[in-house]
Amino acid sequence: MTYKDKGQLEIEDRGAVLVVRIDGGPHQVFGLDLAHQLDRLVTRVDRDPKIRAVVFTGAHPERFVSHAAVRWLQEEGAASPTVGRRGAAAVVRLAKYVDGSRLLGPLMRRTPMRGALQLERLHTIFLRMNASGVLFVAALNGSALGLGAEFAWACDLRVMADGDYFIGQPEILLGIIPGGGGTQRLTRLIGTHRSLAAILEGKPFTPAEALANGAVDEVVAQDKVLEQAVELAERFDKRAKGSVAAAKRSVYFGGSRSLEDGLHIERAEFFVRIMSKEGQALMQDYMETTDATGELPLYEPDTYARSLASGSVPGRRSANGR
Predict the structure, then answer these.
(1) Are 205 and 152 contacting, i.e. CB atoms less than 8 angstroms apart?
(2) DSSP code of 251?
(3) Any long-range contacts for 119-122 (C-beta under 8 Å, 24+ apart)?
(4) Which of 8, 10, 226, 318 has its CA at a distance of 20 to 30 angstroms from the CA of residue 194?
């Protein structure tokens, strides 16, 4: 039986927040069809200044995403020529170049190299999520294994249902390893040793274990997961979209490099934001308010709490409607 696309993303518009239900068919698996739709979704929200957050949840009552469609992986692996590590490294390097080529990409997707191109595109989609000014939240309404867990790791925040659910990387039990970013993203979330031990054993985390080791941010009752994830998204969606993007790029892409290289990325992002109209206006407002009141606004009673709620420091301009 040949793998066939079945999944779809069901999008609910809630203004600045989109709620996206992942429908992976009867078994709630993630395949190439969902990857294509996710690609289009990320492009859409990046281009729309009104969209500030996306909350993903599973259409299945007890699963976020079960894992990748194994038939998809097996068939692409079988269609690819057998190579060693050096050959594989050359193939994936070439895939990175070819994927961005309008001419070569469509041609190579008809060859045995298509599996490498599909993997490259999936990694690119997740990286675009990491570089985006949109906040991505995983509302884990149930279990997630393999690519389902990697999808959650690629999001910025994770809320998981309490109960008899699990999340982790079982790929080693199928004679492979995580391929959707699990070895890298889980390591950055919980640390090298704990990540390696979990991947080598293939045993998933319970909700309590995931919360304790930092793999998820909150654990709540299942019927509260989506509500809590949306509330979390709405809490952050008032921040400047450009600043959210700059902070995410600095953390995701700078935090895994040497200190010197990471600081270089931070400096570049910082200078873009202090030159922006939004940054300039808010800093001018802060200084004018300080001059007028004789105190730093963030040290005034209740101002910090109001700033967190509104997404920016309230000042004389905002109070006067300027």
Answers:
(1) no
(2) I
(3) 119/92, 119/95, 119/179, 119/180, 120/92, 120/95, 120/96, 121/35, 121/39, 122/35, 122/180
(4) 226
**Other CB atoms within 10 Å distance of the CB of residue 288:** 15
89-120 residue pLDDT tens: 665 666 665 666 554 455 445 554 566 677 88
First to last CA, the chain: 65
214 alpha-carbon distance from chain centroid: 15
CA angle 121/28/5 to nearest 5° reads: 55
How big is the CA angle at 236 (ends 233 and 238), to the nearest 5 degrees?
A: 115
- Give residue-wise pLDDT tens across range 173-229: 999 899 999 999 999 999 999 999 999 999 999 999 999 999 999 999 999 999 999
Q: CA 217 from chain center: how many Å? A: 13
Q: How many residues does the chain have?
A: 322
Helix or strand or coil: residue 238?
A: coil
The answer to whether the beta carbons of residues 87 and 106 sit under 8 Å apart is no
d(CA 67, CA 35): 13
Closest CA to 57 of 116, 140, 114, 128: 140
The token duo for 36 is 């294509």
